[in-house]
Amino acid sequence: MKEKHANKPIDPRELRDALGQFATGVTVITCFDQHGKPVGMTASSFNSLSLEPALVLWSIGKGSSNFEAFNSCSHFNIHILKHDQGDLAYQFASKDGDRFADVKLAQGDQNAPAMEDCLVRFECSLNANHDGGDHRLLIGKVEKLQHNDGEALAFYRSKFAGLLA
Predict the structure, then answer these.
(1) Which of 2, 23, 38, 126 could join 113 in a cystine, given CB atoms 3.0 to 4.6 angstroms apart?
(2) Would you say 79 and 121 are in contact if contact means Cβ atoms under 8 Å apart?
(3) Does pLDDT of 21 surpass 90?
């Protein structure tokens, strides 16, 4: 096992590779920017925080092209993807094209774009926004949730995989 000593800085690439050993779920997170335009991105930095009150958290890099929209939004939706939605995860991770192309959004009074086809959707109001080094930690209060039967998409060692029970 490789070991790092406290007196030597951790190489960011090595840290990223080590963190890649931890399998995570895959989400698409959406909001509206200050002009009402839908914004969305793929993220695996999602976690539960509290059951009472219902709080979830995720983080966004300060260098992300979506940073300003999410850093200033009042609401966001977190969509946990199904095992067969790797292409959708890539679509929202891409820097090119319309991320919302061919994505069916729910109609109605939405505070953030709500994808219809996902395993789980958490509709959140912003509860807190904290500094986290080169990221911001966004804590959402879950206002509504919708969940469907199915299997989750996972991310492990920089690759997507189905997470089957």
Answers:
(1) 38
(2) yes
(3) no
Query: Which pLDDT value is given to residue 20?
Result: 76
What is the length of the chain? Answer: 165
Judge whether 57 lies within some domain.
yes
Q: What is the pLDDT of residues 39-51, one digit of tens each?
A: 999 999 999 999 9
For the purposes of burial, counting CB atoms within 10 Å of the CB of 34, is it exposed (0-12), middle (13-18) or buried (19 or more)? exposed
Mean pLDDT of 113-133: 97
What is the number of domains present in the chain? 1
pTM of the model: 0.89
DSSP states along 103-145 = PPBPPSS-SS--BSSSSEEEEEEEEEEEEETTEEEEEEEEEEE
112 falls within a domain: yes
CATH of the domain at 65: 2.30.110.10
Q: Is 16 within a domain?
A: no
